[in-house]
Specification:
Layout: H1 2-20, H2 26-59, H3 70-102, H4 109-118, H5 120-143, H6 146-162, H7 166-172, H8 177-192, E1 196-198, H9 202-264, H10 273-277, E2 280-282
Antiparallel strand pairs: 1-2
Helix pairs in contact: 1-9, 2-3, 2-9, 3-4, 3-5, 3-7, 3-9, 5-6, 8-9
């Protein structure tokens, strides 16, 4: 309950910034659209390229397994890299504008895109690094036993925490991907230590805010029968999409606020000092 309470307060305080500049929600929208287009293009192209190999396997009476195809693995890695690039690109733009708003600045949507575009080379390099680590962890997790999968999960969590500030570091500090990773890890360790537990979880708030979407679906089904069921489902999906955009924007704002606290021990006026300081707590 304490974690949920802190998370809810963080969402409310981040919303104060989001309410002053609704353009911030455009970044996750564009990111989602771009990722969808990229995934569709790569998946469609990959499916066509795999047709000869699939046809040959069927002709030989063998079962076709795309996971064993080098072309499939190359396509999967390409998808990882491009999607990582798109997501980090728009997150850098979001964090840049959010940081300006937190400090009373007047950055616009265009300023955020210009910042991300200026960092495009470094963002692409980081996308290669993140995709490589992601593929390696996923591959090992699939091939190892239960204990091995647990170990990979722990390593994945440690990697995620170490990378928590990579986006704002890429946005505001002229560093290479490796230097950005080291800088992010150091900021996290110096501020909250090496053994921490999450004092907040935006996913908890997201789960609570999903309930009205299910309520819309059920109410529409009760009132309108089969037609209401279909309409309610469409309304629920639309609501979930809007909620996803909202929570992504809130996450970017909070990431910028924590970065300022980790770097300069400055707490933006919209946030509580105690709440920021207790975002992570030492393990007992």
């Amino acid at each position: 309950m304490g974690k949920f309470s802190r998370s809810w307060q963080l969402v409310r305080q981040s919303f104060a910034i989001l309410r002053s500049d609704k353009q911030l929600m455009l970044f996750p929208v564009l990111s989602a659209i771009a990722c969808f287009i990229v995934t569709a293009v790569i998946a469609t192209g990959g499916a066509f390229l795999m047709l000869p190999a699939r046809a040959a396997a069927i002709a030989a009476g063998e079962q076709f397994n795309p996971n064993q195809s080098p072309m499939f693995m190359f396509g999967l890695f390409t998808l990882y890299v491009v999607n990582y690039f798109v997501i980090v690109f728009f997150n850098v733009a979001l964090v840049g504008v959010a940081n300006s708003r937190l400090m009373g600045g007047t950055w616009t949507f265009r300023d955020g895109l210009e910042l991300a575009w200026a960092r495009k080379g470094t963002i692409l390099q980081w996308a290669f690094v993140a995709a490589t680590v992601g593929v390696i962890l996923k591959t090992l997790e699939e091939r190892l036993g239960l204990i091995g999968r647990l170990i990979m999960r722990i390593i994945g969590i440690a990697w995620t925490l170490a990378c928590y500030f990579v986006v704002p570091v890429l946005a505001f500090e002229d560093l290479s991907p490796l230097q950005a990773f080291k800088r992010s890890s150091k900021l996290f360790r110096d501020t909250w230590g090496e053994k921490v537990v999450g004092g907040f979880s935006l996913s908890l708030v997201s789960m609570l805010l999903m309930l009205p979407g299910f309520g819309l679906w059920i109410a529409a089904a009760v009132v309108g029968g089969l037609n209401g069921l279909l309409i309610g489902m469409l309304l629920m999906i639309l609501y979930f999409l809007l909620l996803s955009v909202f929570m992504s924007a809130v996450g970017g704002i909070f990431n910028a606020a924590l970065y300022r606290y980790a770097c300069f021990k400055q707490v933006p006026p919209a946030f509580s000092h105690d709440l920021i300081a207790s975002a992570w707590a030492p393990k007992s």
